[in-house]
Specification:
Elements lengths: L1 H21 L7 H5 L1 H40 L11 H15 L5 H25 L7 H23 L3 H8 L15 H12 L1 H7 L3 H6 L4 H22 L6 H13 L3 H25 L8 H24 L1
Helix pairs in contact: 1-3, 1-13, 3-8, 3-11, 3-12, 3-13, 4-5, 4-6, 4-11, 5-11, 8-11, 12-13, 12-14, 13-14
Length: 322
């Protein structure tokens, strides 16, 4: 039964991916692909733009949803994800610094430096939480939002000082309109990281039950915590460098799946990955057809949908999600 449902979910995501391939300013209908005169042009659009964009949407949605799940497991709080823990802002700060001092650095170098800053910012967030004596369900994300606000203000100041506000906006607002062949392949790194998280899902689930519980079961708590944080940092940095940040995705998708399937990460992660990819594809399709032939950035659509679902979760299931 579970396998059949997964196949149905995968089929739904596949249908959304096919719709994504056919939507855009250029004509990519079946007749255009078959026609001899227009076929070559349509094929180029398909191979250079549409397929890379659709793959980027799937990879980014899958990885960010998985990263949010890991953060919620490790912090034992349902309202934490990279955008509510200072991780995104830290990655943006690292990317700004490498842009200032080494603008010609390869993309992989920018990603690694941004990942280092993202990891440092996340560790700082966890360290601050250890110093907070009483932590309610909402205190943890509020601490992360305030930390992210401080880091974001510093980043914005230097971006304004060196005329890089436009670049900063591109890093923090996701937009897939510029994704072409040769400019998205770094996202395959996130696929590998998501697969590694799936292989370690049972250990991450145990680590989410607390240090004492995990240690009593023979788990190297600090090792698995470091492993999870590195995955989150690298996923966040890769997505920020490549397409910009996807707000609320890592918060909404894990919560929805958890309400239905519980907290067993090994069982729920495939559903989280599929729902994350499907949600990103849906928001991108809406953004492309709402004002055709122009586009609304997916970050705008995701922010509206994500904030609405976030408020719904707060009002309907705050105690249950604690």
């Amino acid at each position: 039964m579970i396998v059949k449902r997964l196949l149905l979910a995968a089929t739904a995501v596949t249908i959304l991916a096919l719709i994504s391939l056919l939507i855009g300013a250029g004509d990519l209908s079946l007749s255009a692909l078959v026609t001899q005169q227009e076929g070559q042009y349509a094929t180029q659009i398909l191979l250079i733009s549409r397929i890379p964009r659709t793959l980027a949407l799937i990879l980014a949605g899958t990885a960010m949803a998985a990263a949010g799940t890991i953060m919620q497991m490790l912090t034992r709080n349902r309202f934490v994800e990279p955008s509510t823990a200072g991780t995104v802002e830290s990655a943006s700060l690292g990317l700004l610094i490498v842009t200032l001092f080494a603008p010609e650095a390869p993309v992989i170098v920018k990603m690694l430096i941004a990942a280092g800053f993202a990891l440092a910012g996340t560790v700082l967030f966890l360290r601050i939480l250890e110093l907070v004596p009483l932590r309610s369900v909402l205190t943890v994300p509020l601490v992360g939002i305030m930390l992210g606000g401080i880091i974001g203000a510093i980043t914005t100041f230097f971006a304004y000082r060196f005329d890089l506000l436009q670049s900063l906006n591109a890093w923090t607002t996701s937009d897939f309109s510029g994704v072409l062949r040769g400019r998205y392949e770094l996202l395959w790194v996130t696929f590998a990281l998501t697969f590694m998280a799936y292989l370690a899902a049972d250990r991450l689930t145990l680590a989410g039950m607390g240090r004492d519980f995990a240690t009593n079961l023979g788990l190297r708590y600090h090792g698995i915590m470091s492993f999870g944080l590195i995955i989150v940092a690298m996923v966040t940095a890769t997505i920020v460098v490549t397409v910009g940040m996807l707000p609320f995705l890592g918060l909404i998708v894990p919560n929805v799946v958890s309400l239905i399937m519980g907290d067993n990460m090994h069982r729920s992660l495939p559903w989280i990955a599929l729902l994350g990819a499907g949600l990103v594809l849906t928001c991108d399709i809406v953004g492309r057809v709402a004002y055709h032939p122009y586009e609304i950035p997916i970050g705008t659509i995701m922010g509206i949908v994500g904030s609405g679902l976030f408020l719904l979760l707060l009002l309907k299931g705050r105690e249950r999600l604690a």
